[in-house]
């Protein structure tokens, strides 16, 4: 019983090549047998568990993708220009025409304006044109049986199996991303279980086949994440000459009235609203790029995907779908740093007495703070951005420097 079936038998060498969850000697078949028993202990029907877990296949590509790191660090202009496109804007408007009645109903019920739901849908799956092709249960089982994040993916797998039974889904129809995100809105199983709703009233919350269910579920999810009805995500702004970039970042939230007093305006130069609503300055491409004020709903977007780049893209795409103009500030050409370049930068900052933690090649808050401290020390514009000037001043030889030499 729960032997893993004939499919598991074709991968013994692959299974032996990786460490699974309990011991390095545990094969994928043994792991799925154990997981099946756990599923039964959590209420899954024994016969269903035997059928489901015996058909699971190990997916080596999932492990490859989980381990892979991009060679180059994504710049904001590169990220933004690939995501906020004329095609997505026009398609979003087309989908608004298609679902106008539904979108207004969801706005009334959940407080989420139509253009935001369309922006999430567009960024996640190109409005449903690409929902992923990996078998979700196989992917989750592969990650659950891998030591790196076994606990998290074990829970997601078990939730997915229960979800499959609850919604009468077919195992072969459950396809998605390599990490197990599913449907038009790319919900992980736990989000699907807690926030997906049956919008079309057919008795099933199906995020693959029902656009109505998907949009309704996205609205419910955002409302539960804390969306503040009646407020924007943020906006592009113009910073005053000589702006102190030490005032940027989440820790430096101020009211719009205070920001206006400091000289900030809307991107077109018109005044900000003089309200007590708090916001913070985001400068994703350094002082040569666009600047934004991020409101509370910006943080709600980041609860969907914890990335400032993503939140800006969602917000601006939503604005464009609703008729707003493109960004006013141009997107600068930025150096293409490799992860090794950023590791070298972090090492140099640590050596110079600016503690940014263990070098990992990721430009996070600690690294930006360290860069800002160094820039202040060197009388540079302290925007916390790793410009070539900063790299050269610290003596960091980058891949771009070598390519230009």
UniProtKB/TrEMBL annotation:
* Domain Transglycosylase SLT per the UniProt entry, residue ranges: 28-319
Q: Which SUPFAM superfamilies match?
A: Lysozyme-like (SSF53955), PGBD-like (SSF47090)
CDD domains recorded for this chain?
Slt35-like
Question: Which top-rank group of organisms is this from?
Answer: Bacteria
InterPro entries recorded: Lysozyme-like_dom_sf, MltB-like, MltB_2, Peptidoglycan-bd-like, PGBD-like_sf, PGBDSf, SLT_2
In what residue span(s) does the Peptidoglycan binding-like domain sit?
Answer: 339-394
Give one Pfam hit by family name.
PG_binding_1
Any keyword Signal?
yes
What is the residue range of the signal peptide feature?
1-24
Keywords, alphabetical: Signal
- Known PANTHER family for this protein? LYTIC MUREIN TRANSGLYCOSYLASE, MEMBRANE-BOUND LYTIC MUREIN TRANSGLYCOSYLASE B
- Name the record gives this protein: Lytic murein transglycosylase
Question: What is the organism of origin for this protein?
Answer: Alteromonas salexigens
Q: What is the lineage of its organism?
A: Bacteria, Pseudomonadati, Pseudomonadota, Gammaproteobacteria, Alteromonadales
């Amino acid at each position: 019983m729960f032997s893993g079936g004939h499919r598991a038998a074709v991968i013994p060498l692959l299974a032996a090549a990786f460490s699974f969850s309990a011991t390095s000697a545990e094969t994928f078949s043994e792991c799925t047998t154990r997981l099946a028993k756990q599923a039964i202990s959590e209420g899954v029907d024994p016969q269903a568990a035997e059928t489901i877990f015996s058909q699971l296949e190990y997916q080596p590509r999932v492990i490859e993708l989980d381990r892979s790191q991009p060679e180059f660090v994504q710049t904001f202009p590169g990220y933004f220009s690939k995501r906020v496109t004329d095609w997505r804007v026009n398609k979003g408007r087309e989908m608004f025409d298609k679902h106008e009645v539904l979108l207004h109903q969801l706005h009334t019920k959940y407080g989420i304006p139509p253009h935001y739901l369309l922006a999430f849908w567009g960024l996640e799956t190109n409005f449903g044109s690409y929902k992923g092709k990996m078998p979700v249960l196989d992917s989750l089982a592969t990650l659950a049986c891998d030591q790196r994040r076994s606990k998290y993916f074990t829970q997601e797998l078990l939730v997915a199996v229960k979800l499959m039974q609850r919604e009468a889904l077919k195992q072969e129809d459950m396809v998605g991303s390599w990490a197990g995100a599913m449907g038009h809105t790319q919900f992980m199983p736990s989000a699907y279980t807690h926030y997906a709703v049956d919008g079309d009233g057919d008795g099933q919350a199906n995020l693959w086949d029902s656009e109505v269910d998907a949009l309704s579920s996205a609205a419910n999810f955002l409302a539960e994440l804390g969306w503040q009805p009646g407020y924007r995500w943020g906006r592009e702004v113009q910073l005053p000459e000589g702006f102190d970039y030490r005032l940027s970042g989440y820790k430096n939230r101020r009211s719009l009235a205070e920001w206006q007093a400091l000289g900030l305006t809307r991107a077109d130069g018109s005044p900000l609203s003089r309200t007590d609503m708090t916001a913070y300055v985001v400068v994703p491409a350094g002082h040569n790029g666009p600047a934004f004020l991020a409101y509370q709903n910006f943080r709600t977007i980041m609860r969907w995907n914890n990335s400032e780049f993503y939140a800006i893209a969602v917000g601006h795409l939503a604005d464009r779908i609703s008729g707003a103009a493109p960004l006013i500030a141009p997107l600068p050409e930025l150096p293409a740093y490799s992860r090794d370049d950023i590791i070298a930068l972090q090492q140099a900052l640590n050596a110079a007495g600016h503690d940014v933690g263990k070098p990992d090649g990721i430009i996070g808050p600690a690294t930006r703070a360290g860069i800002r401290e160094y820039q202040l020390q060197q009388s540079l514009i302290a925007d916390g951005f790793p410009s070539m000037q900063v790299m050269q001043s610290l003596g960091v030889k980058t891949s771009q420097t070598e390519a230009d030499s």
